[in-house]
Amino acid sequence: MRAIFVGGLLALASALPLGAQEPTPVPEPDRRSGAPPAAKPLPAELVPMLRSDLVFNGITRSRDGRLFSPFQRQEQGKGIALGEWVNGKPVAYPDAAWNAWKPGDDAAKAFVGLNAIRIGPDGDLWAVDKGAPGLGEAPLPGGPKLVRIDLATNKVRRVYPLDVATGPKSFVDDFRFNGRRVYLTDAGEPGLIVLDLDNGHLWRVLDRHPSMTAQRPLTGESRQLADPKGAPIYIHADQIEVSPDGGTLYYQPCTGPLYRIPARLLHDPKVTELERAKNVVLHAPIGSTGGTAIDADGNIYASDTDALAILKIAPDGTKTTLIQDSRLVWGDAMWIDEEGGLWIPAAQMNRTKAMNGGTSRVEFPTTIYRMAIGAKPLRN
């Protein structure tokens, strides 16, 4: 989850219930013996893997087992933005200089406000920087960017500037690969940015479409969240996934629901916005979500920030609850490893000052859990 403060959005009357789940059926006794039914197997255990006294909002793991997280600075110009977990502690990555931005520095050459990271299909580490020094602030010149880091040399390989596709209220949020294209969500000026990796060309699609726009305030632990001034928080286009065959893009505002659209419509310059809009389909009626992941079979895993649960959404849109646990406070950007484990950062973003009316309720240490789910990872 990546927070952005945007006001003035209505249409709450048509909103779907937040955190809605199907009721769990109560098993009946065995009519033949009168004995109580056999207990259903308990879900796989949540195993604490990493703990920190910093606030993070994601996790990614390289093929050789290296772990990385983006961190949310609680004060401007202080703390790290991207860290590699070394001996259980986050260390500034790729170096101190990229993590040392402070007001007045060149925003194009350091992380101003890192938002999402992931290991790309090429095995490199990619990171998206919203380029704004604070929540709700305008991006700085050169600030919005996608950074590619070579894990073999631990050096920045290339920076893709995003300025030409962003505006004064933009909040570049998350991203996914589809072949030689990258899709990036804009949670501030609702829409989708498409980047061609071969030539660096950028274009926007579905700008301010209702499916990209938050229709209700953000909630966490069944409470409406507020910025330090007490205003409700709206986060537009946020979570995003690509189907295993690359044919479908799934996306949603942070408060849901989850939509889908044929990916080919995002690439063809002859396709009009009207035609794209006609092909947007509701995929699953889920509510406030911290982060997602997708497996090689096309199942999407989404954190329910109100129920403190992880939902599993099948390719046909069927929704089930994978696990519900009070420790999963704001499950954020997740990762499926090569051994079939789901890594879940319990980020507690809803308890930070930025989302809790200016007062922190974060209970340290923050924790990243792993849960065995037996799924095959999808690398896009």
TrEMBL record:
It comes from the Bacteria. Keywords: Secreted, Signal. InterPro entries: 6-blade_b-propeller_TolB-like, MRJP/yellow-related. Transmembrane segments: none annotated. It is found in: Secreted. The keyword Membrane does not apply. Residues 20-42 are annotated as: Disordered. PANTHER family: PROTEIN YELLOW-LIKE PROTEIN (PTHR10009:SF18), PROTEIN YELLOW-RELATED (PTHR10009). This is Major royal jelly protein. It comes from Methylobacterium iners. The lineage of its organism: Bacteria, Pseudomonadati, Pseudomonadota, Alphaproteobacteria, Hyphomicrobiales.
